[in-house]
Structures are given as structure tokens and as C-alpha cells.
Amino acid sequence: MARKRRGLVAKASDGLSQPRRRWRHISRSSMEFDATTKPAIKRLARRGGVKRMSGLVFEETRGSLHTYLKGVVRDTVLYTGHADRTTVSSEDVKRALRWSGRTLYG
Question: How many CA atoms lie within 13 A of 64 on its CB side?
Fold first, then answer.
């Protein structure tokens, strides 16, 4: 007997009610860059030569990082779409950075 494949919806446990959803939808607000932690910002600052930082720097850094990455991702997606692909390659990111005036070495 052939097994049936289930789609995006799983059966409810009692068999009488509506089928339940298998995956949750992620809201756009939860995908913000609030996950950039304080130690991660400190590591970036240390690499840039900063010795000490005020506590107010972290929120400002998160905002600046959000703005910068938003632009880079937008340009990267434009390059990917122009090449009629759906998967972003590292070459797309390098071209987007070069187009915005920031050359990536390495």
C-alpha cells in the first residue's frame, strides 16, 4: 500500500477539529537586528582599535548596523535578481559592496 505524503498541514490529534499548521510564521519585527549582542559589538570595536565605550554606544551601533546592512542586502538582492537567480552568491555581495564604494578584500 502506498504511503500518502503530507503537505504543509498536519492532522489534528483527535481527528475531528481543524488541521493544525506545521510551521509558525515569523513576523518581520522579530527579524530586526536586536540580536546583535553587546559582546559582538565590543568585538567589532576592539578590532577597530577602540579601548573603552560608553553604554549608549550599543543602541546607536545597532541602528547604524541595521541601516548599513539593509542597504547592502537590498543591493545584493538586486544583483541576484538581475542574474535571474534566487540564491544569493558571495559574488553578488562583493559586487554590491564594490558598487556602494566599499571594496571587500580577502
Answer: 6
SS (H, E, C) the chain: CCCCCCCCEECCCCCCCCCEECCCCCCHHHHCHHHCCHHHHHHHHHHCCCCCCCCCHHHHHHHHHHHHHHHHHHHHHHHHHHCCCCCCCHHHHHHHHHHCCCCCCC
Residue 71 grid cell: 542597504
Encode pLDDT of 28-53 as tens digits: 665 555 678 999 999 999 999 999 99
Q: Which amino acid is at 31?
A: M
Q: What is the pTM of this model?
A: 0.63
